[in-house]
# Entry
Amino acid sequence: MKPLSLLLAVASALGTAVSAGPAVIECWMVEDAGGGRLAKKPAALLLRQGPGTPPPRPDLEPELYLKVHAVLTVLTHNPTARIQLGQDALLDLKFAYMPSISEAAASLAPGPPPFGLEWRRQHLGKGHLLLAATPGLHEQMPAAQDGAVAFAAWDDDDPWGPWTGNGTLWLPAVQPFQEGTYLATVHLPYLQGQVALELSVQKPPKISLTPAPLVWAAPGEAPPELLCLVSRFYPAKGLEVEWELRGGPEGSFQKAEGQSWLSGLRHHSDGSVSLSAHLQPIPVTAKHHGARYACRVHHPTLPTLGRSAEVTLEVAGLSGPSLEDSVGLFLSAFLLLGLIKALGWVAASRSTSKDPKEKKAQ
# Structure
C-alpha cells in the first residue's frame, strides 16, 4: 500500500464527508492571533496517495499549504443509518494506521499494533458504554449490551504497515430505545480517533378502511361511519390523516365533508403504535353514486404522496344488477327449478307404487 499524506489548506466550508480516492475533509485550524488571543479558521484536509504536488484548488492559496502525516484515520461510509423496526443494524466503521518512518524503524515487533475499540450510545442526554474490545490483549472487558457484536480486527498483516481495520458494530433486532448517537473510538498507543453515527428506527404504517369495499346510502341520508385503521408504525410523530372524496359531483378529488376525529395512540410490545381515524360523512345525493371515499395517510416513512385506502359509495335505487348479481340470480333459479323437478319425480314415484297395492286389496 502507498503511504497516505495529508495537505492542510485554508477553505471556506465545513463538513465530514470522506470517500475513496482523492477526498476532502473540511475542518478548522487554530492560530495565534497575537495579544494572547487564538483565531479559529476553517481549513481542509486534502487526502491523496503517494508523493507529488497538491491537486489544483483555485479557491486556496498555495503558500498556506502545510504538509502533515495522517497516522490514524477513523471514518464511516454511512454516518446516518435508518433501520426498519425489528431488523438488524450494521454500523459501519473503518480505521487506518500508518506509523511514521522513525516509529516503524524503532519498532521491535513487526505487524499491526494492539488496539482498543469502544462503542457508546447517547440519547436524550444520557449515554452508556455499549461495547468494549481489545483484540490481541488478554484483558477482562465488560459484557456487551443489547446483544451488540463488533467485528474488531485488522484487515492487513503487513510487517511495517500501513494497516487498515474494521470495527463495524452489529445490533440484532433494533428497538426504538436504541435510537440515538453512537460514538465509536479507536485507541492505539498514544493515539485515538473517534467518529459519530446517527441511528434512527422506523416502520411504515399499514392502512385499512372499513366498511369495505362498498358503503350504501339512500338519497338524502348519510353513509355509515368510516373507520380508517393506521396500524403498527414508528415513530409516532409526523403522522397526518386526510379524508378525500374521489369522483364526486364537484371534481375528481376533493376534501370529504363531514365530522372527523382521531383516536388515542395504542402502544404495542415491539415499540410501534396504532391509531384509528373516523369520518361521519354528510348526507349524499344521486350525484354521489359511484364516488369513492379515501383515507390518505402521510408519515415520514412513506413517499411524498403518502398511502391511501378507499371504499366505493353506492346510492340505493341507482345501481343495476352487477355481473356477480346476475350470475347469482341465474344459479339460484337453476337450483330452484331442479328442486321443483326433483320433488315432482318423488311424488310421481310414490303414486305409481301405491296403485298395485290398491288393486291387490280389491
Notes: Residues 1-22 have pLDDT under 50 and may be disordered. The helical segments are 101-106, 323-361.
